[in-house]
Amino acid sequence: MAHYSQLVMPDHINTVGTLFGGQMVSWMDIAAAKTVFRFLKGSKAWGAVTRAIDKVEFKEPVYAGEWVNFVGEVIATGTTSITVKVDAHVEGNDETSMRLACSATITMVAVIKDKKGNFIKFKHGKQVD
How many independent structural domains does the chain possess? Predict the structure, then answer.
């Protein structure tokens, strides 16, 4: 599991005054990458790359000045793949509790460099606890 936070700035806002959806997805991809980075510790993988972003659901609008707090959790593994569930909760300036703004399922593939220096899929050998 990993946590990642991002402050929403005015340049992240779309023409209707809310967070641009593509920016949210980009941040969710970073949260998934951090989650997989931690998951792969102890393996020989150099890292992981995004394979698929599925089931993205925008639930609540997000505004400039709010913090988006991401939580990533590995939910499945394959031979080279790692699937992460990412939830994005928004923390606003008011006294209300955080709200779920977006969720997604992101699949990443572990990679390693071959003898020629090219990145190739890597059988990470790890499982979800």
Answer: 1
How far apart are the C-alpha atoms of 38 and 47, rounded to whole Å?
Answer: 10
| CATH number for the domain harbouring residue 88 | 3.10.129.10
Residue among 121, 119, 110 nearest 36 (CA) = 110
Give average pLDDT by consecutive 10-residue segment, the chain, 129 residues: 94 96 97 97 94 95 95 97 98 78 98 94 91
Query: What is the extent of the structural domain holding 6?
Result: 2-121
Measured CA angle at 56 (ends 54, 2), to 5 deg: 85
* Single pTM value for the model: 0.92
